[in-house]
């Protein structure tokens, strides 16, 4: 068994290294799509409109002068900065706010404080829960919680890899679950809306209600948080603990447990952050019941400005609490220090800017030329030929499995969503209107997160392996895969069943 697992890990690692970076993929896709429009210039096909009428589409040859002018006129503003109604701007605003809280040290202190008060009897459960919740804190879960989990178990004279595995499962495999909407919800939701509207797919739920991108999965991610925490706890107790408790481990002398203990200054900061939380909630409540309160417009339709601006309200919460903590611990001595925290966060967004430039321009070309509609048309025809339109649950499960496999070879939630979303959001809806954009996006999130912990393509795979090697110096990626595989299989299975349950019972995924 270990030999097979290591062989599988070696194969995945070799195959993954042959796959270009997503930026390179989109750089290659653009000229390929351009040439395809030249070959197919003038080709027409028919689809059914939303009212059942026949709609004729035609492929635009992008080599023609008017279309070349369109490329240059729209490359920056419409296709990149303005794509999907300015989705890039929304993402950047969220990251600015998270940057204030993260660079103040608030997230790290919260994780250390919670970790130091975990009862031994439910230690794995709480580690997984904290790991899931840490997705709001971007890197903090990987860089603070997982090493802390190892120290906690070492202090109990138990194999530190048990705690690190549980925390890793929560941080990475449960990445798309949480109790509050966050950056992932903004990225997935805003782009899902753009993908749907670009192909004429209504951005509504199964009940016909208009979706709010940032909160369209809120109910589902709340349920997922508790279900995955319980699942991960069961896996830890049933499979991971019995195996690792029998294995030897070392505790290096250079590891200082005090490094992950809450300092007096951090305790002061957390008390200030508690006050900041109260202030932030009062500010949000004042806005929600004041200028952003619900009202009925002239057409008699209800308007909920506080829901439409949910991502900005969440961003306000992070800024206020982060600022209170940063001032209390001396990290923020002036407004300029807060600005530097935002700048520091933006320094990590350079790759996203490059990726979205090529991605959104490619998607703009697909939409304008008609290739995107044609690809959707072909995929829908193929799925309908298989008769899957009669079995929406099979469509849903099939999409999850395909995405889960792709995730093993291509890292990065955003890049994969850019690859799969524009195709599958409209395609699955055309095949069966029950496959609404929020359902397809939720299926993607389930698949993408579940296999993060068994692929070397995940950004922090090497970092986590290095952390684990402190306690087991000869550990290879195949060994880590063996430890994490039960979590991946269990999460993928249970999470898929949870989503199918939401769909089959008609439970809304969010608001």
UniProtKB/TrEMBL annotation:
Gene Ontology molecular-function annotations: secondary active p-aminobenzoyl-glutamate transmembrane transporter activity
Biological process, per Gene Ontology: p-aminobenzoyl-glutamate transmembrane transport
InterPro entries: AbgT
Protein name (Swiss-Prot/TrEMBL): Putative p-aminobenzoyl-glutamate transporter
Organism name: Wenzhouxiangella marina
